[in-house]
């Protein structure tokens, strides 16, 4: 029998959940990295699922449109239905999920039947990890850390990146995100002859892993290998900084980016899906 345990105190939740998430640090990098970064904010959902008093899943929400599902044990069809009923009874709002593809699809279908909602696949993703670079960056450019002098460029590229992944934000929010990325000190550009032509960011550090995201190249500079060089150089920098692995998510509907990352040395781990309820 499954049991849903809800938490109101972030520190208590961290103490309970972080050791569980760290058992699969890379696969759980989204929930783990966000949870480690939470300070005074109050997440919208903090919960665990237990089976015979043993934790088998963690649920965590900071994004208004989706609840993160951690790696879980293999649930039976009946247990997925039990979990759906528990969520339906205990959560006022279930806007969507992000998690391993098969489990997330099955849980979303069960929730749809209970709440008469319409599921919408926002993105089919694949999670990759790397511990050794196979393709080095081109020698005609260099990696440059972006500072506040680059804020107008980072703001515009964050704005365009979010449009590209079908998660548009206002220019005001894009500026706030750009400032945050710059303040954290891990957003870099690939520089050719003094001009920044591509961007990538390193985010959500955990004990031994860090995630590469916000990879963006403007249309005028695409198909020149700049994104590949930028990601390769940033990955190399993170590995040299002490991280044993780097990870990233890709959109499976973009075969070009998947090919680029695999050439660098990224290996597929799991398929993930983002589902929103209408």
UniProtKB/TrEMBL annotation:
Record-annotated N-acetyltransferase domain positions: 149-278
TM spans (from-to): none
GO molecular function ontology, one term from the record: acyltransferase activity, transferring groups other than amino-acyl groups
SUPFAM superfamilies: Acyl-CoA N-acyltransferases (Nat) (SSF55729)
Record-linked InterPro entries: Acyl_CoA_acyltransferase, GNAT_dom
Pfam families in the record: Acetyltransf_1 (PF00583)
Lineage: superkingdom: Bacteria
Designated name of the protein: N-acetyltransferase domain-containing protein
Originating species: Pseudoneobacillus rhizosphaerae
